[in-house]
Design goal:
The complex is a heterodimer of chains A (502) and B (593).
Chain A: H1 6-20, H2 24-39, H3 44-76, E1 79-81, E2 85-87, H4 89-109, H5 119-138, H6 142-160, H7 166-197, H8 211-229, H9 237-244, H10 247-279, H11 285-306, H12 311-331, H13 335-366, H14 377-380, H15 382-396, H16 402-421, H17 424-444, H18 446-453, H19 469-486, H20 489-495
Antiparallel strand pairs in A: 1-2
Chain B: H1 11-14, H2 16-33, H3 42-63, E1 81-92, E2 98-107, H4 109-128, H5 136-155, H6 159-168, H7 170-180, H8 185-213, H9 217-224, H10 235-246, E3 256-258, H11 261-264, E4 283-284, E5 287-288, H12 289-304, H13 313-320, H14 323-348, H15 350-355, H16 357-377, H17 381-402, H18 405-436, E6 444-445, H19 447-450, H20 452-466, H21 472-490, H22 496-520, E7 526-527, H23 532-535, H24 541-559, H25 562-592
Parallel strand pairs in B: 2-3
Antiparallel strand pairs in B: 1-2, 4-5, 6-7
The chains are: A mainly alpha (502), B mainly alpha (593).
Chain lengths: 502, 593
């Protein structure tokens, strides 16, 4: 029988307890999940608002804790927790972003009629997905990465079905099938890495043989991350799932898992680059690969978006194009690149949240499900239409919105990276990214086009309430978009001089 | 560089340009916020804003120092008048130093003519919009937004600011054409938007490149600790920073990158070896990046001008746009293209300007002829006028390409003059369209008998446009040709045949205008439809009030060119001399590498 070293066990326990304080917010989140689970036992009609309110409270508390954590990591720098998780400002920023997004999604979901029966389950799944995403951005261990990604995925599969229609069940199934393949590939890649290096920990160790296998493993792992990011070639699930899921859930999907996937990819790209440097005598194949995938995502996402008639599918394809932009930021792999990526992520979250909130509003108030249905909305709802216009302009990336600034920063980092490395693929990426702004204009403007240019079909529907709470909320988001155009440093300065190890 | 101080101490005066830019914006905001029941006051509010601008513009005109020995502007940041400079965005980008964007505006001889023109055309376009009733709130607020953006474009001295205003013209224009336009308005508006955005994407690439290639020496001196504030930086410290930069001793993290056009126009502010630097110039294939940048800017603005073969959006946009919007489009928006070339492409890349002069001239010449031929073939009066715009804006390119004082003066004179004449031409089309909703040339004949006043106005406008002596177009075109001919001797940029071939444009211009007058106004009185008979009444008082100031100005500038030339020629002379000097230097420095 193996001898158990009591003393070292004690030491380990002590370390776990010390590190416990760093994952306090996550503990709170877990207890939130448990509470929501218990609340689900109450009769459905009564607990709808009660459990939403409690979950919101938990989320706000978690957000506040993340705020403190942010200040803490800003002061002390990077912390490694038992080789499993890593805490740094960039990660905390994203965690905060995810928590706030989830809170907004909970608020948006209050009107979902399909949720009446299952609000408890819904909230549990949402919080679980959030927990997974939060762990994803901190993970620094292959196993941790895998587990957290699966945590997000499994919760997401179930969430897709929450419209309780045939279509939404179908979408959920498609999601599972794709997810299973992607996760299998990723796991295989990870096992190759483990087999060759003998460790699950992040960080490159020279191997004596099987260099090619190591690169192969990296590529397989990349597949899993691209799946979360919804980037080419692992994007196929996105349109169907976005269309099938209830709109607030779609909003969640388009933001949280995607940006978490981006964060993981950034973490691993550093490793991939090291592998490249050592094995392929400094040729940055990962950069080339990422840049190529970025170009493909941009082209495919944008060109497919042109032909869509369902606004959610349109945003799904546009989301694939946005993944291309995120990949571009990663391909530029530089200090500025990572910071512009964070900026982009925040702006993207704001824009998408606003866009989906407005789609949701148009859906439940005016029954709008197709882009043509937006006809003449400006006459019925001038204020909502104006907000929609600004959000679409921001998504296109035109000034004076932060959507432009975010793209500009990515372009700048690409240009700088090109100036420094001389890799011509980066220049091509820049060119494609710019041209794609044009294509994006074409389809984003389709919605305002119907809203403003086409006459109304009938007058029967309700006039807009002067100022609904949803409009106020979206207006705040829109004001953020405008403000961050005029003063990008108010956000960017948070990322400056901050510690991050991505 | 020391902080730009306004030449005047008076408070109101020192904010004059800001007032000019932001008054319409404020008006637009007010109109949006006013409740629907006040709908009739929207246009009054718009008029108030525009009249306020006219007031500001007249102060600007009287306060502007022109003539010999006046501040020249162009390359010299301290010699701009009514300048304002504030820090807008000041952001650290980590180990790449700092990004700084300034709210920097001011006028020199080149931009003041454009500002004055815009204010005037906006006023006339507003009068022309007086009868717009449908969705008045949207119309007048978009009108004022567009107004703001256009003026902003002409006074901006920071590339980012310029780009912001440039982009900001697109959306209002898109909606103005798309909602209030003619039958195929949707197609025309999206075509306009896509084309112009394509142009601005090209401009954006260059902007990013410039940003990462150059620094602001004064701000860098502050970040190095050589001075306490930008205002306290002395020339010694500037020199020191530029020396450090030239010798590669300036750490990247201390650099302050800038978008300021005047700082970007100084080759000493470029980081040696960066993509757009003249020292250790970088090549893409066998062409330096600088020349590619010039080409990109050229294409971006050529779309706006529009130059053949990038002009195809213009006839559609014009034909579908409502009359007042056509007036703005032809009168002001096209000028942004020409102005942008002068302010950015030529000022920042003089080497490219010299290298590509032949091509720019060729594009100008082809535009002149191709536009004229198309005008000759047009059956729709508005399409004819639109193509004549393409033809006339070709002169701007030809004059600019010659890089002689005459040519560039002529180019700017042509922009001003074309702004007035084309506004008048589109108003003329609008008069007819308002009455009959038909613009086919072949559907009218002998109108002179029925509408004598209108005929007089048409004849004046057509003669002015075809370049008859006594009208402003003549002065502009004669200057352009003088420049183009002189170029082959003076700086060998343009061959003689180019100017000779371009003169055929004048001939064609006379042909299509005279032929149109003959077909529509003289001969047997005939209309395609009987019911037009009662609708075709002569000009109303409101219409006269739009035409009269334009006619007066066109004639005034045709007889006394010095009113305009006095303002612009000092800056233009400086511009031409510097572009040639610096351009030659930079060409040498690039070819040495």
């Amino acid at each position: 029988m193996k001898h158990i070293d009591i003393e070292s066990l004690g030491l380990k326990l002590e370390r776990i307890l010390t590190y416990g304080q760093y994952i306090l917010p996550e503990f709170l989140l877990v207890s939130g999940i448990l509470v929501a689970l218990l609340l689900a036992l109450l009769p459905a009609e009564k607990n709808r608002y009660l459990s939403s309110a409690i979950v919101l409270l938990v989320l706000v508390a978690v957000a506040v804790l993340y705020g403190f954590q942010w200040v803490d990591t800003y002061r002390t720098g990077v912390k490694s927790l038992l080789g499993m998780l890593r805490l740094h400002t960039a990660a905390v920023t994203l965690k905060l972003l995810f928590t706030l997004t989830t809170a907004a999604v909970v608020l948006l979901s209050l009107r979902l009629s399909s949720l009446r029966q299952y609000v408890g389950e819904y909230l549990v799944l949402l919080l679980t997905a959030l927990l997974g995403a939060v762990l994803m951005v901190m993970s620094s261990n292959l196993l941790m990465t895998y587990l957290s990604i699966e945590m997000v995925s499994i919760a997401s599969y179930a969430l897709t079905g929450f419209a309780f229609t045939k279509k939404s069940a179908e979408g959920g199934l498609k999601y599972i099938l794709f997810g299973a393949v992607a996760s299998g590939l990723m796991l295989y890649g990870m096992s190759l890495h483990y087999g060759l290096t003998g460790s699950l920990e992040l960080g490159f160790r020279a191997v004596s043989e099987g260099e090619l296998l190591l690169s192969f493993g990296s590529i397989l792992m990349l597949g899993g991350f691209l799946f979360k990011l919804a980037a080419v070639p692992f994007h196929v699930w996105a349109p169907d799932v976005y269309e099938a899921a209830p709109t607030p859930v779609t909003a969640f999907f388009s933001i949280v898992p995607k940006i978490a996937g981006m964060a993981v990819l950034v973490t691993y790209t550093r490793i991939f680059l090291e592998v490249d440097m050592l094995l392929l005598s400094g040729q940055e194949t990962v950069r080339t690969l990422l840049a190529t995938l970025a170009i493909l995502s941009l082209l495919l996402g944008n060109f497919s978006a042109i032909w869509q008639s369902d606004p959610k599918r349109l945003l799904a394809y546009s989301g694939i194009a946005h993944s291309g932009f995120l990949l571009a930021g990663i391909a530029a792999f530089s200090h500025l690149g990572i910071k512009s990526l964070l900026f982009y992520a925040v702006i993207y979250a704001i824009m998408n949240l606003a866009a989906f909130a407005l789609l949701h509003w148009a859906e439940y108030r005016y029954g709008i499900r197709r882009i043509e249905d937006f006809k003449g909305l400006s006459q019925k709802a001038p204020f909502g239409s104006l907000l929609l216009l600004v959000v679409m302009v921001a998504l296109t990336g035109l000034p004076p919105t932060a959507g432009f600034t975010a793209k500009l920063f990515v372009f700048m980092s690409l240009w700088d990276a090109y100036g420094q490395t001389g890799e011509s693929i980066l220049l091509w990426l820049l060119v494609f990214a710019l041209v794609n702004t044009l294509i994006a204009l074409f389809y984003y403007l389709k919605i305002p086009y119907f809203v403003y240019f086409k006459p109304m079909k009938d007058n029967g529907q309700a006039q807009e309430k002067p100022l609904s709470s949803l409009h106020m909320a979206v207006m705040v988001l829109v004001l953020f978009l405008l403000m961050l155009f005029f003063k990008p440093e108010w956000l960017m300065d948070f990322f400056n001089n901050a510690s991050f190890v991505f | 560089m020391a902080r730009c101080e306004s030449l005047n101490d008076n408070d109101m005066i020192s904010f004059l340009l800001s007032l000019l830019v932001f008054t319409p914006l404020l008006g637009a905001l007010l109109i949006v916020l006013l409740p629907k029941k006040w709908a009739s006051s929207y246009k009054l509010l718009a008029l108030l804003a525009v009249l306020f601008q006219v007031g500001c513009a007249s102060i600007l005109y009287t306060g502007f120092e022109g003539g010999e020995g006046s501040p020249k502007g162009v390359f010299d940041g301290n010699a701009f008048q009514f300048a304002e400079k504030y820090n807008w965005i000041d952001m650290s980008v980590g180990n790449l130093g700092k990004l700084s964007i300034d709210y920097h505006i001011g006028v020199d001889g080149i931009s003041i003519s454009m500002v004055l023109l815009s204010v005037l055309v906006m006023l006339i376009a507003l009068v022309a919009s007086w009868r717009v009733q449908e969705k008045a709130k949207g119309y007048f607020s978009l009108f004022l937004l567009l107004n703001s953006a256009v003026i902003g474009c002409f006074v901006a001295l920071d590339f980012f600011l310029f780009y912001l205003f440039f982009e900001f013209m697109l959306l209002p224009m898109y909606f103005l054409i798309g909602i209030w336009g003619g039958e195929r308005r949707e197609y025309a508006s999206i075509k306009f938007f896509l084309y112009t955005l394509l142009g601005s994407v090209f401009i954006l690439v260059v902007m990013i490149g410039l940003y990462s290639s150059a620094i602001d020496p004064a701000a860098t001196a502050v970040s190095l600790g050589l001075a306490t504030s930008e205002a306290a930086v002395d020339p010694m410290a500037l020199r020191q920073v530029q020396d450090l930069l030239a010798n590669g001793l300036l750490p990247a993290s201390k650099m302050v990158h800038t978008f300021d056009i005047l700082l970007l126009s100084d080759a000493d502010n470029y980081i040696p070896g960066s993509l757009l630097s003249t020292i250790d110039a970088q090549y893409f294939g066998d062409m330096p990046f600088r020349w590619i940048a010039f080409l990109l800017l050229f294409i971006g603005f050529a779309i706006k001008i529009p130059a053949v073969p990038l002009h195809t959006w213009l006839p559609d946009a014009h034909v579908e746009a409502p009359t007042p919007i056509s007036v703005i489009l032809a009168g002001v928006l096209l000028k942004v293209g020409g102005y942008g070339l002068i302010r950015t492409a030529y000022t920042l890349f003089p080497d490219g300007a010299l290298y590509f002069a032949w091509w720019v001239g060729l594009v100008g010449m082809v535009s002149i002829l191709y536009g004229a031929f198309n005008a000759l073939a047009s059956k729709d009066l508005k399409r004819l006028v639109a193509y004549s715009s393409v033809s006339h804006m070709g002169f701007v390119l030809l004059g600019l390409a010659s890089l002689t004082a005459e040519g560039v003066n002529g180019a700017i004179y042509q922009m001003f003059s074309h702004g007035l004449i084309s506004s008048m031409l589109f108003l003329i089309v609008g008069v007819l369209y308002d009455r009959t909703h038909d613009r086919s040339i072949e559907n009218y004949s002998g109108l002179a008998a029925k509408m004598p006043g209108y005929t007089v106005v048409v004849v004046i406008a057509f003669f002015a446009s075809l370049g008859l002596p006594g009208f402003s177009g003549f002065i502009a075109e004669i200057l352009v040709f003088l420049g183009a001919f002189k170029s082959s001797v003076a700086n060998a940029l343009l061959p003689k045949w180019m100017a000779i071939v371009a003169t055929f444009g004048l001939l064609l211009g006379a042909a299509y205008y005279l032929w149109t007058i003959q077909r529509m106004f003289f001969g047997q009185y005939h209309l395609r439809k009987k019911e037009w008979e009662s609708q075709l009444v002569d000009l109303s008082a409101r219409e006269w009030s739009m035409f009269m100031p334009l006619i007066l100005l066109i004639v005034l500038l045709g007889i006394f060119p010095h009113f305009l030339l006095e303002m612009i020629s000092e800056s233009v002379g400086y511009f031409v001399a510097r572009v040639q000097d610096i351009g030659l230097q930079q060409l040498k420095s690039i070819s040495i590498n």
